[in-house]
């Protein structure tokens, strides 16, 4: 039971982080361009968070 609760909290936190990074990425892309190293770094970080979220979602559905 505790693992499910932790997954929900983690998923909720990840969703918040993903939404925040999406906004940051849009702003960075608009201000600095899509090929800017900072923009690319944000994009890579966002990709990492999305993969983590997808893994948690897959674990949750397997339970």
From TrEMBL:
GO BP of this protein: regulation of sporulation
Lineage, opening ranks: Bacteria, Bacillati, Bacillota, Bacilli, Bacillales
Highest taxon listed in the record's lineage: Bacteria
GO molecular-function terms, A-Z: protein dimerization activity
Protein name listed in UniProt: Aspartyl-phosphate phosphatase Spo0E family protein
SUPFAM superfamilies noted in UniProt: BAS1536-like (SSF140500)
InterPro entries: HLH_DNA-bd_sf, Spo0E-like, Spo0E-like_sf
